[in-house]
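Predict the structure of Methyltransferase.
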Amino acid sequence: MGLLSSLRPHRRGSSGGAQAQWQWSFLDAVWAVFLVAVVVFLALVFTPRRGDTLAAPAGAVVPPCAASEVDLLPCEDPRRSSRLSREMNYYRERHCPARGEASACLVPPPPGYRVPVPWPESLHKIWHDNMPYGKIAERKGHQGWMKQEGSYFLFPGGGTMFPDGAEQYIEKLTKYVPLKSGLLRTGLDMGCGVASFGGFLLKENITALSFAPRDSHKSQIQFALERGIPAFLLMLGTRRLPFPAQSFDFVHCSRCLIPFTAYNGSYLIEVDRLLRPGGYLIISGPPVQWKKQEKEWSELQAMAQSLCYKLITVDGNTAIWKKPNQASCLPNQNEFGLDLCSTGDDPDEAWYFKLKKCISKVSLSEEIAVGSIDKWPNRLSKPSARASFMDDGVNLFEADTQKWVKRVSYYKRSLGVKLGTALIRNVMDMNAFFGGLAAAVASDPVWVMNVVPAKKPLTLGVIYDRGLIGVYHDWCEPFSTYPRTYDLIHADGINSLISDPKSGKSRCDLFDVMLEMDRILRPEGTAVIRDSPDVINKAVQVAQSIRWTTQVHDSEPESGSAEKILVATKTFWKLPLTSG
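Done. Here is the predicted structure for Methyltransferase.
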């Protein structure tokens, strides 16, 4: 009859006693409990969860996620955030799953996915099927954001406040802001849409980091990254943004709809923390001379004046201010109750750090102000005052710069890494320190997201002084970007990203970090991992379990180092599992 049929309930026989029936029922229960235990055991073994060391038996391949998870955002998941408070947009900030909560699976590409259009052609068009979402084209097409044409989405370069194109808008701003002089290099574009403003600034040698939250448009940051424009998934809500103080040469908002003076001015205070002395604040759209927002416009002007910002111009619905070069003019008499923070405040601390309702005291203001810091590209190779302020900072800076020139040359010459070709545009350095790798590839047609681990020394300010961009992040959590958004991911000392800096114990698993790298990496993209031979051996095992092809190399001959370098390629597979 078989095992399942033997577990069917037994009927009372006409001659059977009560004791015999009770015995058979008891055996049935024992069998049932045993089978349930076996099923649970097999599920635990063969359905991996994040947090398992290898998450699958040796030689096994991690399974694909469901087709519905093609755009998986672990820390911006509306299924979780919809249950959270709406106050100050808390629900739209990062909220990551607890360790072990998320299934360990490989995020599949959408049907019809192709290797992305190469840069610079991608600035103007991308494959429709790589992100088959037409909502923005339908709602914003008349404003020049984007439109569908055949197999492509096209980007005319428009925006809500510049429907005639970003280039014309940039020309207008240049009358008041020195966008073409080399004085300005790094910008923050808040609520950026599909990032055409940042995209067209690139030809002026300006790198604007564009950000927006996951919202009703769903994929605006994904479109920006597919175009090869620096962008990041982010919400200005209850926390400081993950950037150092005095980092951006200008901050731009084009109809970003951020209520700058609400919550006791918390959002304008945060902009002030991020803006470099002598930098420019550009706001186009509400509330600037906007109908029915006269009160908000008046408050914005008054608060900027309390911070001693100089109003450069009000041109239609665009207002531009210049931040003073010197340290804050506070304390002063102002209607907003603005005052300086206590001496215990570290303005560079910005990883899960609550917004403050006070103005941060910042040292070295005049030394790193716009106009004092070197113009681009000289600032790239010269240690700034911030570097000089660190213990042995200048020597460390120069040694790091020279080291990465040699390493990048070795990557290109001997390891076959396609830096400098059309195959690589979006690059991430997971452990950036002073941004040496990004500096070494500055002449290549790439941009680099420099990530400074939040548990390590906060060197990100030096990176911004060089004219480069980046964020703070803890690699025991998923990164705030969409799947398939980077062509090359570099991890120098990957084990240090998961180790406690004091105890040396692991805070999370190598598997978790590499699975996240796989989510971020584009099909046929490259991962370069450097570490000790033992760590690289473990990395190879994980790489094979997530379907990467691998090559292990010795480090640069002149370095005299015993560390190994893993160069891996993410394979192009589709659902059902086939090679692309």
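Residues 134-359 form a domain with the Rossmann fold fold (CATH 3.40.50.150).
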